[in-house]
Amino acid sequence: MGKVLGDVLGLAAGVAISPLPIIAIILILATPRGRLNGVLFTVGWLLGLSALGAVMLAIASPAGASAHNHPATWVGALKLALGVFLVLFGARLWHRRPKDPSQAQLPKWMGAIDRLTPVKVLGLGLALAALNAKNAPLTIAASASIGSAGLPTGQQIASLAIFVLIATLGLLVPLGVFLLGGERAKTTLGSWKDWAAQHNVAVMAVLFFVLGAKLLGDGISILVS
Fold first, then answer.
1. How does pLDDT run across 130-163, given as a tens digit for each residue?
2. Cβ–Cβ contacts within 10 Å for residue 69, how many?
3. Three-state DSSP class for 15?
4. Could you tell me which residues come within 8 angstroms of residue 45 by beta carbon, excluding any fewer than 6 positions away?
5. SS3 for 65?
6. Which of 40, 64, 165, 176 has the most crowded CB, counting CB atoms within 10 A?
7. 159-196 burial, b if ≥16 CB within 10 A, otherwise e?
8. SS3 69
């Protein structure tokens, strides 16, 4: 289990460092129902990652993900394909990044965050976790690594839970600052939001490159061994 956690913690950190969800929860916390909606957004995120990871584990475990204590060929092929996707998407983001960070624009849907109902906030957290172009491949890859290790079911579930917890730190930190930081929290979160908004595309592009390269290396290693 320790080897599996070592393999997936880097992927979990990649999910946690997601500027747009971090900006979204900071904006949500600034709304009149910020306390409730912030918790609901985080719960939705947890549910999205958990559901996607659980589906992948359900597919990987009975599909022969592990053969002779070594990941099966299809696991290597999956990681290779996900790595190629992330690298290409990272190149596209880097090419489209604003030359002047101060000119960066947030998605239009963020302007309607203060009008979202609690149910929609929950759904937004779920969607940003499970349907994001970075988070979904990383969660799938992490779950494939867990499923390919031949661990008992209990250890697979525990490994996935640890992955999800680490991957949620990007939201838990702002939420904790808001709940415990008092009046100073608004200034702190505001500065985080401004920085993330300006550097969102560049940060995402670099993450796509780095994590894509890791998955490419993992996939090639499995296929040639």
1. 998 889 999 999 998 888 777 788 999 999 999 9
2. 8
3. helix
4. 21, 125, 126, 128, 129, 168, 171
5. coil
6. 40
7. bbebbbebbbebbbebbebbeeeeeebeeebeebbeeb
8. coil
CA 92 from chain centre, in angstroms, equals 19
Which residues of the chain register pLDDT less than 50? Answer: none
Q: What is the pLDDT of residue 168?
A: 96
For residue 69 the two structure tokens come to 């204590």
| Contact call for residues 64 and 180 (beta carbons, < 8 A) | no
Backbone angles phi, psi at 158, to 5 degrees: -65, -40
In whole angstroms, give the CA distance from residue 173 to residue 203: 18
Instruction: Please give the pLDDT value at position 63.
Output: 56
State pTM to two decimals.
0.85
Residue 197 tokens read as 């908004």
- Helical (H) or strand (E) element with 26: helix 19-29
Amino acid at 41: F
- Give pLDDT, residue 70: 66
What pLDDT is attached to residue 67? 53
Identity of the residue numbered 130? A
- Indicate if the alpha-carbon torsion angle 70, 71, 74, 79 is positive or negative: negative
